Each structure stands twice: as structure tokens, then as C-alpha cells.
Predict the structure of Phosphatase.
Amino acid sequence: MSSRQDSGRVIPLPLASHHSASRSSITCKYRCGNACQHEAPNTSGNAYFGDIVESVLSRRGALKATGALALTVGGASLLTGTAAAAPKPGPADGPVRGAVPGTDFAPVAPNTQDAVVIPEGYRQGVVIRWGDPIVEGAPEFDFANQSAAAQEKQFGYNNDFAELIALDRTGSRSLLVCNHEYTTEEHMFLGYDENNPTEEQAKIAWAAHGLSVVLVERQDDGSLKPAPSRYNRRITLTTPFEVRGPAAGSDLLKTSADPTGTKVLGTQNNCSGSLTPWGTILSGEENFNQYFAHADSVTDPVAQERLARYGIEGAESTRKWERFDERWDIAREPNEVNRFGWIVEIDPHDPTSTPVKHTALGRFKHESASIQVADDGRVVAYTGDDERFDYIYKFVSNGKVKQGTSALARRHNMSLLDDGTLYVAKFTGNSPESEIDGTGTLPSDGHFDGTGEWIKLASGTESFVPGFTAEEVYVFTRLAADKAGATKMDRPEDIQPNPVNGKVYCALTNNSNRGSEGNAAPDEANPRVGNKHGHVLELDDDTTGTRFGWNLLLVCGDPNDAGTYFGGFDKARVSPISCPDNVAFDRHGNLWISTDGNALDSNDGLFAVPVDGPERGFVKQFLTVPKGAETCGPVVRDKVVTVAVQHPGEIDGHNAGNPASHWPDGGTSQPRPSVVAIWREDGGEIGRG
Ligand code: FEO
Ligand code: CA
Ligand code: CA
């Protein structure tokens, strides 16, 4: 183990980074269609273009590459213990006891174990795995003999968002709702031939996408187990959805299978999401572009521009589904692609309900959407577009929320997101541009902060973007936002309001292209060149208004790197954190952050951080996930934490014939994406000593 001496104590060093990319190429291929290997699709001439980089560089002299570490360590794993043995606390050198309620646990050190590693005094158990039976009549999972018919009744693949909806006061019975973001065929099928997938493999993948709803019951030992129930449901790529809002029925959404433009089969690449105050689930359709083939056959320049802005390009698709259903072929069905990229809403309390696609929230690579209820009862939905140099949006409803989660209230409230105003964010820093030097060094006022403006894009049938009809704003939202002059961000992922302090928190995962030739230069809201580790933004929003204040709560990475910032907290005491992705809150208002693509040579993890008081910025790692996995969908309740462990073992050079992970079943088993629950051995509250 590498270490340094500090005040007589031996402190494990944060792990060094020497990756140019923090995610395996197989994950990039199947999850986002190799987005990072292409130029970012935002080529608009918004503020801060490449020529500004030149001037910044010449003004500031030699610009050090962001992520350069003060201390570097070889690629050695810091931990060699087993999953059963909780690791020693990480680099946090302060009192781990007596901390803010909810974050009082001994932090887990960075590691590369093939296990979920949790703090001392906690226990863990798998809740549900890919292929586990959900719907009545579902067979047990049989890796070697999969079928679409079985998968349609079983838990889907690559769980991302997860939510627990309590059905009683004690939380002994809850509905677990999960997204299944994408399929990794090379890991799902032994001997998979990517040039010649079978029709059954394609249909299994259609059934492995979408969402699952399953009843889970808390056991006497604190674990959560699935149970049969009338709620249990699979939503897949063949489940009918109703298109609602101002673009429903648009010519842009009509296909030969749906001449009304109001009925879509399925949802895909569902990434993060949220629970609404009325008890439904919002889910974001993210990297939908990669599933569509033959964009290269399009010759109309307007259509070409619209496709290119969403990264839709090339001949055959990665999975080659177009061979089995022509809706995936843009040459045959040019509008099918316009029917994905929306926020969807499902009612898990009513298993017969038809899920909805909400066009009023715009079409882009939605990470998620989450709701804040304004004082006057209108609702605000915040949503990010997860692509390098894309934007943050909000929607404000015209209608007001009905209290409660009754069927009547849910029906009314599910219509709120169909009628309102869509805005995009423009950020302005309050420090001189010359002080934003691209290294992450704080400007002289001590903060990356400023003000911002929500720019109106469309409201109902009215467009506020010159040259765009309202329908065009909703369906080609990225292009409308370009024209409106939105601020290019470093991959806006989850964005959620904190139910305790009312502020809104957004994870910006990373952006290796920030400040590179031809791309946007650093600005105060995205202050680092080649932003490898990401940052976390705190918004003080005027809810239904058009102004906000903002600051960066965290500038992530190795705390030994001078270009990191932890809310002003002592960096010697925090856990290293890299590539923030999903955010959640405990009942105390602490922010919990899961990571995707840790670029510090540790497995991804879940972190807790107070956002107010003297421990603001005291980041502590609560868990790590197994090799090759991403930590997703954190839920933090008083007595239990759950995370979705996505793509375990998804490491280059490995496939189903040569698995890199055997989690969760051990031995020589295939890895299976799963949801895990963590609770305290003594039955006490999470993070309370
Ligand atoms: Fe699916 Fe933006 O992560
Ligand atoms: Ca400032
Ligand atoms: Ca994500």
C-alpha cells in the first residue's frame, strides 16, 4: 500500500490517475454508442468558443493539464481484503464519529475489489438480479437458455435508476422501480456474434430494456426480498406508451405504424429518474441515438442537421435491430427516432396504466427529471442533457398540484407536465474571465459562482425561438437551445432539488474536451480544461422565476490535486471522488452522490456530503461497487440504502466466455447487474454513529 506520513499518522494515498478515459470501451460502445469517440454534437457558436481558449492560454502561460496530480502512485490496488472484511477508513483524517447526522460512518477506502464494500457495522444483501422472476409465470433465470418470452417477465438488464416507494408507514413493503438502461450483448450471450445477431437475441434485448416494478418486503434481518404482487410489472421496448403534451400528434412524430403520432412502442436507454410528489416515476430516455441505422442515407440538409445534433449517424446500428424491425431503420421510418429522447412517466401503483411520454419537457438525451413544488402549487421539473457541451433545462407547469397520492390526484398531477413553459439555462460567472485559468484554481473571490438566467424556449403552442415552430422546439430542443444562447456544460447528469434546504444540485460528470481545440473554453461554471473528474453544481433557484444564483459545491478529483475543491472543507479529511453522476438526499438534507467512471483507478462508489454547516463539503465514501461496475440509482432511507450495480465486469477484453467479475453469485458465475441493499447490523439509522 502506498502511503504518506502526516502528523505522525499513516494515511492511504488517494489513487493516481493515468487513464485517458475512465470508462471501458465496451461500456461506451453499448451504453452510449461510443459518444466520447466522436466529436461532441454541439457545434453551435454559443459563447466561449475555441478562439477564446487561445487567448486564455496565451494570457495564462503554460496551462497544466487538468487532473495532473500532486502525488502519483502506481496502479496498485490499495485493498487486498475480502468483501466480508470492512476496510479501514480512507483518507478522511478527521473524527469520523460525531459527524453530521446521516453521514456519521467510517468511510470506505478506494479499492478495486470484485465486491460491494461497505462501512464497518453495516450488512448488505442483493435485492434482485438480472433475470430474476417478477411477473406471474416467469421462469427462473437460465443464462444458457434465455428467451424473449422469459425476459419479458424477468428483471431486465443493466439497472440504472432505482426507487423505493413505501406502501406502508414503516416501509416494510415497498415498490422497487428500476430502469434498465441498455444491453451488453457480448456479456449477455455466450459466443455472441456482433455481425450476425439472431432475431431471438434482438428480442431478448428489447425485453431487457425498459423498467421493472416489483414489490419488495423487508425481512427480519433487515434485508429486502422481492415478492409476488399485483403491482409487479415489466415495461419493455414493446409496451405501448401514450405521447402527450404540445408535440403529441405532430407530423414529426407520425410513422406508418402510428399515423396519429400519439402511440409509441416502448422506451429505451432509460437512465436516471425520480419519484414525483404524487407517487409516479419519471425516467429519462438518454442515448437513444445509437439504436437507429442508416442516418447516412438521409440527403435533405435540414434532416441531416437534426440527426447530427443528436449524434445520429452512420450505416448499421451497433445491435443491428434494423434487420428485424424496420422502425430502427431511418431510411424506412424517418420519424421513429423522433419518438425517443423524452421524459416518460409511469404509475407504478396501477399496473394496467399506460405510461406517458411528455413532449413539453423537450427532446434530448435526458439523464432524468425531478420535481420541485413551488409555493403557489405549480411544479418545476429540472432536467439535464447528458452530453459534452449540452445544457440544463427546466419546465414550469401552468397547473397546480393536487395533494396526495390517490388515484384521482395522480391522474390530475400526471397532466401537469403537459402544459407549461420550457426554459434552458445560461450561466454567468461573477469573477473576471482572466481568473478562470482552466486549472481549477479558485478565483480571487474564493468561489466558482455567479448568477444565471432561464431562457424561455416555448410555452404550449408558442415558440420563443426565432425560426422554430413550437413543435420544432419540443422535438429538436437541442437546436432551439443553441439558438437561444444556452451555456455549454460538462455533461449535466442528475439534477435534483434538496427537500431540506430547497436548493437544486446537479452532477456534471466530466468533459475531456473542455478547452480543447475547436471546443468551448473553461468558464466559471465549467472551470477546468479537459475536465476529467467532474463537478457538482448548487443552484439557488427562483423556482418558477427566471433567475438563479449558483456555485460549485465540489470540483471533484484527488484532494491532493490543487485543482479540486470540497465546499471549502479541509481536503486532507475527505474521500477522493471522481465523475459524479446520480444524486439523492437523506432526510437530513445531506447530498449522496454516486459515480460513473472513477478516473482515480478505484472502483465507482457512493458518497455522502453535508451541504450546510461546518461540515459542508466533507465528502465520505459509503461504499464501492465491484470491478467494471457503475454505482447508480442511490436511495437513502432511515434504515436502508439501496444502489443499482450496473454493468459489473464490463471491462475491455472480457465477455461472457471470459467474465471479469463473478459478482454477485461468486465462484465461476456470470456477473449480473443487480440492486443491493445496505443496512446497519444493529438495526439503527443509516449514518447515525
Ligand atoms: Fe446513463 Fe448519463 O448516464
Ligand atoms: Ca466567483
Ligand atoms: Ca447516469
Q: What stands out?
A: Residues 50-60 form the longest helix (11 residues).
